[in-house]
């Protein structure tokens, strides 16, 4: 039997997750794009309040330091669209990321493991014996650490690169 381990649990689906969206205040973790977009829609006002009056100031934000001029152009278009209530989910997601409202991550280390799926149910690995717990945390089952992303994107960079390329081609 292949064992499946997870670092976290999605707050919406209650499924194990090793990749996903995390709100910076750690209030919510989501492993599904559709559910994530629904959640940031609810938080739209709070996200847009984080946009500086002079959008050029975003160039200095930590999450935008590696942006190209093309990516800034797409981001500034997203902000303009948002100010006119015309932004797409992907645009709102990009704004949310840049202003630090959420981030996307993947947990790759066995030491991040907190959950195991057993017979379709998630159980805390703390429920295992101390010996079994140590084996899990020390990576003896790491080859079974299910790091399949919840979406077709394998990383934050890829996710936003594809998003940005869609924006600049439209």
| Largest sheet strand order | 1-7-8
The portion of residues assigned to helices is 25-40%
Cα-atom radius of gyration: 18 Å
Question: What count of helical segments does DSSP give?
Answer: 6
Encode the helix/strand succession as letters: EEEEEHHHHEEEHH
What separation lies between the terminal Cα atoms? 48 Å
Coarse morphology: elongated
Average pLDDT figure: 82
Main sheet record: 3 strands, antiparallel
Count every beta strand, where a strand is a DSSP E run of 2 or more residues: 8
Percent strand equals 15-25%
Work out the count of structural domains. Answer: 1
Structural class: alpha+beta
**Would you identify the regions where 5 or more consecutive residues have pLDDT less than 50?**
147-168
Give a concise summary:
By secondary structure, the chain is of the alpha+beta class.
Describe the structure in your own words.
By secondary structure, this protein is α+β, with helices and mostly antiparallel strands. The protein has one domain. The chain has six helices and eight strands. It has helices spanning 33-42, 44-49, 69-83, 89-98, 130-137, 156-169; strands spanning 4-6, 8-9, 16-17, 19-23, 29-30, 102-106, 115-118, 121-124. The strands form three sheets. A three-stranded antiparallel β-sheet has the order 1-7-8, with no helix packed on it. Strands 5-4-6 form a three-stranded antiparallel β-sheet. A two-stranded antiparallel sheet has the order 2-3. Helix 3 packs across helix 6 (156-169). It is elongated, with a radius of gyration of 18 Å.
């Amino acid at each position: 039997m292949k064992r499946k381990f997870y670092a976290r649990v999605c707050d919406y689906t209650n499924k194990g997750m090793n990749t996903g969206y995390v709100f910076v205040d750690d209030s919510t973790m989501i492993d599904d794009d559709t559910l994530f977009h629904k959640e940031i829609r609810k938080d739209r006002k709070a996200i847009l309040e984080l946009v500086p009056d002079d959008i050029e100031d975003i160039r200095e934000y930590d999450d935008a330091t590696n942006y190209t001029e093309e990516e800034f152009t797409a981001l500034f278009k997203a902000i303009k669209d948002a100010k006119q209530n015309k932004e797409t989910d992907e645009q709102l997601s990009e704004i949310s990321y840049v202003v630090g409202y959420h981030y996307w991550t993947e947990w790759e280390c066995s030491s991040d493991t907190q959950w195991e799926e057993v017979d379709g149910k998630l159980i805390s690995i703390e429920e295992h014996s101390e010996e079994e717990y140590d084996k899990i945390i020390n990576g003896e089952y790491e080859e079974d650490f299910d790091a399949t992303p919840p979406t077709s994107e394998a990383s934050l960079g890829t996710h936003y690169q594809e998003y940005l390329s869609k924006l600049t081609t439209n």
